[in-house]
Amino acid sequence: MALAGLFRRYPMEIILVAMYLYLVFAAPGFATIDNQLNILRNITMMGIIAFGMTMVIISGEIDLSVGSGVAFSGCLTAWVTRELTPFLGPYPSIAIGAVAAMVALAAIGVFTGKLRQHFNMPTFITTLGLLTVLSGAANLITGGFPITSFPYEFSFLGSGFLFGIPFPVYIFVAVFGLVFFLMNYTSFGRSLYAVGGNLEAARLSGIDVWKTKTLALALTGVFTAIAGVLIASQILSGSASAARGWELTVISAVIIGGTSLFGGKGTIRGTLIGVLFLGVIVNGMTLLNVSEYWQLVVRGALIIGAVLMNHMLETQARR
Amino acid sequence: MALAGLFRRYPMEIILVAMYLYLVFAAPGFATIDNQLNILRNITMMGIIAFGMTMVIISGEIDLSVGSGVAFSGCLTAWVTRELTPFLGPYPSIAIGAVAAMVALAAIGVFTGKLRQHFNMPTFITTLGLLTVLSGAANLITGGFPITSFPYEFSFLGSGFLFGIPFPVYIFVAVFGLVFFLMNYTSFGRSLYAVGGNLEAARLSGIDVWKTKTLALALTGVFTAIAGVLIASQILSGSASAARGWELTVISAVIIGGTSLFGGKGTIRGTLIGVLFLGVIVNGMTLLNVSEYWQLVVRGALIIGAVLMNHMLETQARR
Amino acid sequence: DDLTVAGIVFQQDQFFRTIQMGMQAAAEEAGATLLEGNSDSQPDKEISLIDTYIARGVDAIVISPVSGVASIPPLARAKERGIHVVTYNSTIEDDSIPVSYLNSQQRDLGNTTGDMAAAFIRDQLGGEANVATLGFQALLPEISADRVDGFVEKAEEGGTLNIVAQQDAWLAEDAVQVAGDIITANPDLNIIYAANEGGTVGAVQAVRNAGKQGEIFVFGVDGTEQLVGFLLDEDNVLQGVTAQQPFVMGQMAVQSAIAAARGEEVEQTVIVPVLGLSRTDQAGVEEFQDYLRSLN
Amino acid sequence: MATVETKDLSKTYGTVKALDGVSHVFEAGRIHALMGKNGSGKSTLVKMLSGVVEPTRGEIRLNGEAVKFRGPADAFAKGVVTVHQELSLVAELSVAENVFLGRLPMNRTAGIARIDWSRVYGETRALLDTMAVDIDPHTPVGRLSVGQQQIIEIAKAMSFDPALLLLDEPTSALASKEVEMLFDLLRVLRKRGVTMMYISHRMSELGEIADTVTVLRDGKLVGAVEFDASSNEEIIDMMFGSVARAHRPARATRAKTAAPVLKVRGLTREPAFRDISFDLAAGEVLGIAGMLGAGRTELLRAIFGAEPPDSGEIIVDGATVHRPAPRRMTNLGIGYTPENRKEAGLIQPHSIHANLSLASLPQIAPRGLVTRAAETPGVARQVEHLEIKVGSVDDPVSSLSGGNQQKVVIGNWLNTNPKILFYDEPSRGVDVGAKQQIFRIIWEEADRGVGAIFVSTELEEVLEVCDRILVMREGNLVGELDPTNTTLTELYTACMGES
Ligand SMILES: Nc1ncnc2c1ncn2[C@@H]1O[C@H](COP(=O)(O)OP(=O)(O)OP(=O)(O)O)[C@@H](O)[C@H]1O
Ligand SMILES: Nc1ncnc2c1ncn2[C@@H]1O[C@H](COP(=O)(O)OP(=O)(O)OP(=O)(O)O)[C@@H](O)[C@H]1O
Ligand SMILES: [Mg+2]
Ligand SMILES: [Mg+2]
């Protein structure tokens, strides 16, 4: 049957559409344009990081530090802004702060990659340690108080609209485009799959496996910093408690999108679907006014269900 | 040199001893018997779970749900106790509640194993979903408020002393002994290494690979429930917010102890060292009055440092 | 005499940070050593902290317990060892343990903002309002409920309240999203009440995101620099907050502890008054802003 | 004693009929050679007999009784033991634990059953001694060479005391000495009445041990003959049908005047090899012969930079290479096809397409931009030239049979247009036809000026393919031979040493 075939090829897409249709009828206000834009804006931050994480996971590594990375870069940007504004004015200061955050997280990605290369340190453990370190560092920067050094207009970045579309959505689309291009049309992208699929074979084929992995980690660092700056703009301050626990949500989105945790397999399109899936669930449950406790249960069950569906279809196809 | 050789063979042990000596001199109150017993009691809960987790990780899987598993089983025990006490009196009710929690978490372990077996669902994602589900379930059981159905004497289990030693330490030692025996003197234990090291080879050798993995997951469920009951006894109530974030700490302890995240390699002795290492760090920093922010930074850095040390020695040894 | 006091908070945020500063000030003044700990809202972590301080032999523990019941056993152990326990902000259900309890009543926090909302509903909204609340049920259910219910109780005095949504969101970035979702789901929403600082910041930003300034009004909790700034902003979103006085609370708590350790009499219960800050009283808000700046 | 009968036995993977209605009786107490070109279904048949995969259709009878294996353990219980084509040992565990994996002996003290470790190690020691193998049972298997691992695999099978022994290309990683040892063991087993099935692509081995030859083609049974009553030609005809076989073309005798493209001086990497010096001329096919563990693989990998050497000099085109690494050597025009394709040669989840253009990425995408248009010619060329049997080039490479996978490994390197190519056991697990194709490719490339180093454990191949042969023994270069006036016996003696 055509439908069955369609379902086998695009299971997540179809689940997403089904959920969507249900919510259109069941959830008050879901189908409004405002709400759709809202969903879009809500998923941008995690989405941007998830695109980086997709590359990292395909390359056979993982990054557990993105949650506190977001907090850290927001705080760093706010701190630099506060310190420099008296000399340079707000906007150059913000720009310097944002660049500093990107450079810092990219450097940390390189550090993680180097440890992996030279000492075979699993990135799982390095980034797990960094999760704690960065959270401490964010608190040290702020001294425990949110830094509120941003001018009001700065909130445009995270909250403003351009041609009727939330501004961060443009950044989201740009990052998606960039990663899509990298993964499908460059040797870097091809190498990601190769090093994740079989490290030794990739190495013997002359691929610079460490450069590939390190670049994926560093890019994720940059994307994390971008998300951090966007969050800081949304809440108009640098807060050390922002984005706590995001690492696991971002990884969920990537895996819901069909990327294999063992590396070598996955697509950026899938991650987009995964991110939308999670975004729609949260939005839908809020609109339906589901209690927080039930939200936890439903969200966990849907994550398991969605990935299970993918795996069932795959298992079936292999028979 | 003898010392160098010793260091190469027992790196973590030596780091632990060095840290210990430092704290004896630097941290007020560290060297008292009270404080040593205190450290012991504090590590028992995580330690018990870490022993189970060691088996799971060696078998090539992971369990991210243990944190909310602890909360869930404490709440379930408290709830059962509240409902049954009018009919059976407190102690039979607690016993039934504790057994119910163990059975529930063991069943969830079996569920996770079955999904892995039949649909090739990575345990990372199943247990990640369960982390959320169980946390929601714990909150639903309690309605958000701690359930205080335990008689005062129940606190003996988690807080009492027997022959001058905190009672939970006996449970800790018993679980350690059990897992040590399992891993070194039973075919189940050896199969753990085989299925984690080379799944296909294990299967071709006639090992029931899925039974092995599932049993490790179920045992970890039981241990998690034991830890949950002990915590409930310590706080004399079932609380849904207990043990948040434990999963990553427990995994850190296992990996600091030298177990490979990729499966097939590790020892239970190593995990004991890893658990002690983390316990001593937290206790020492509290006694030294290190600020919360610096504690985060130091803890993360020490985790990275300790694992790095292990890996550096290994890399060197291979040359 | 060299006194050692352990001061335990249960969260890292501006409120508790300010409490710690108050504690430090009081300890310094009395020449006592202050040990700082954070229980992270987790009963198990709290136990291991308290036990560690008992082992270290502190003279007093000043604590905001994570739970009214779960925190009793370890504090009872501390008391057995002759350690003086002072609770602040939250307490335990066993009155015999703490020598003193200082708090702003959580219900008062809700009530005070509720009074402002009642006046607002009566005067500006014609006696009827659609209201959404943001709490922190999954984090600290008891306190969250006290604040939200306290708010609703008083706000109802200003007219008819339709509660259209009750959700959890205590971190600013979560609150931006959740409040944003609620706003789209309820086009006729008038009021959002957020029960903590992060929720209030997020709710204000969500209203701004939606461009609903002047249509949706936010009431909240806590007197931080950012929130005070919002009260002075001209876009008329944030209407009122109720500030606790964390610095004073921390200071008084440590003072009580030291007094108890020196064998002096201390008050069993001390209510630290809360302070309503309303957009209608700009002078009061500015005065509070000056006070905040003087702390740093 | 076990008679094996298959009835209409079939296995389909998706649309691929791996085995298609095979009905045959394998008589008890004999050695049955199972022949067929790559992908003809031999391994699939063995996997079904050993309970690893379940048949799609049909049934298996042991001694007349229908059996249904739900897993390898069921097969063991019936005395069916298998040495699989792909190595299946746990690298982290010791030799002895691997031998007893899944059935560790227990003893009972105070009512508690526990593993009897002294028996595990004692019995393994004894077993290895009877096989005259000098490997410490405590060694982790991961430290052994591929050949040594293969021996452990065989030792493991022996330790079961099988009634039916299935051997899927057991000799593909073994050198002559070990092959002889294996055959001796098999003959002893045959005397004891053990039934055996033996898969190999080495025709020469059949004469030594096979009683019957059963041939599969494209999943179907072609027929079975008594070995004594047939000839090699007949068997090869059965395997390939009417398809014409490649024959060795007259090798253009090259002038040995060409300048050396590769010079190796005093190369050492302890403990694998030491003080190796030789030259390789453009267009020359240089063989390196040696016994198992002689250090050939290690030498090639060291020159290629996979594991850098301790000391010595590598000179490519007259320039010394400092700090060799795969990437640097690839850029210098050197290629290396590894001996273990599964671990080191292929990206298994990748498509055939991507695997064929992996090493040549720098050429295909000089500025880092990959387009399908740039890749397709190379991919298509290799599929055609190497006659890789593919459904679609977008299928994962793991769906190919062993031999076809090997061709992909070689094709990947040919696409880089190398100046020098190292072939490490390129014919491992490749059928006779494909083997000839691969040899032809080696010669053609050599004629175009590519210098080749050819390593194979099959000495006949070394003699057939190479222009010049170096002999290695225990990590030392011990001699040089001219294949045109060397006999197999001479080469074998040179590899074995004086004793
Ligand atoms: N797991 C699998 N999934 C899909 N197709 C498979 C699988 N295993 C084998 N095949 C296909 O089944 C056919 C028979 O494969 P098999 O491995 O039995 O061949 P073989 O005779 O052992 O070949 P070789 O000599 O190359 O080892 C091949 O076409 C192969 O591609
Ligand atoms: N990973 C390893 N660790 C330790 N020793 C090794 C390792 N790999 C190989 N060796 C040793 O190095 C020597 C050379 O092995 P190598 O694999 O190069 O031999 P070879 O001639 O290619 O034989 P084959 O590939 O047929 O096994 C052997 O003594 C082997 O035991
Ligand atoms: Mg085969
Ligand atoms: Mg070799």
Task: Give a short overview.
Chains A, B: It holds the Pfam family BPD_transp_2. Chains A, B: This is ABC transporter permease. Helices cover 77% and strands 1% of the residues of chain A.
The unreliable regions of chain D are 243-248
- Reported CATH architecture of the largest domain in chain D: 3-Layer(aba) Sandwich
Helix content of chain D: 25-40%
**Low-confidence segments of chain C:** none
What is the count of helical runs of chain D?
18
Q: How many strand elements of chain D?
A: 22
Largest interface: A-B, 47 and 47 residues
Radius of gyration of chain C: 20 Å
Assembly state (oligomeric): heterotetramer
How much helix is in the residues of chain C? 40-55%
What keyword list fits this structure?
heterotetramer, A: 319 residues, mainly alpha, ABC transporter involved in vitamin B12 uptake, BtuC, two-stranded antiparallel ribbon, 14 helices, 1% strand, C: 296 residues, alpha/beta, 6-stranded parallel β-sheet, 12 strands, binds adenosine-5'-triphosphate, binds magnesium ion, nucleotide-binding (chain D), Sugar ABC transporter ATP-binding protein (chain D), membrane (chain D), ABC_carbohydrate_import_ATPase (chain D)
Provide structural commentary.
The complex is a heterotetramer, with 2 copies of chain A (319 residues), 1 copy of chain C (296 residues) and 1 copy of chain D (499 residues). By secondary structure, chain A is mainly α. Chain A has 14 helices and 2 strands; from the N terminus they run αααααααββααααααα. Chain A has a two-stranded antiparallel sheet with strand order 1-2. In chain A, helix 3 runs antiparallel to helix 11 (209-234). Chain A is globular and about 65 Å long. Chain C has helices spanning 14-30, 43-56, 72-80, 106-124, 141-155, 172-185, 197-210, 225-232, 246-261, 282-295, and strands at residues 4-9, 33-38, 60-63, 84-88, 98-103, 128-135, 160-168, 191-194, 217-221, 238-243, 269-271, 275-278. Chain D folds into 2 domains: 4-245, Rossmann fold, CATH 3.40.50; 260-496, 3-Layer(aba) Sandwich (Rossmann fold). Chain D has a 6-stranded mixed β-sheet with strand order 6-9-10-3-11-12, with helices on both faces. In chain D, strands 18-19-20-15-21-22 form a 6-stranded mixed β-sheet, sandwiched between helices. In chain D, strands 2-1-4-5 form a 4-stranded antiparallel β-sheet, covered by helices on one side. The model of chain D is unreliable at 243-248 (pLDDT under 50). Chains A and B meet through helix 5, helix 6, helix 12 and helix 14 of A and helix 5, helix 6, helix 12 and helix 14 of B. One magnesium ion binds at residues 296-297, 339, 424 of chain D.
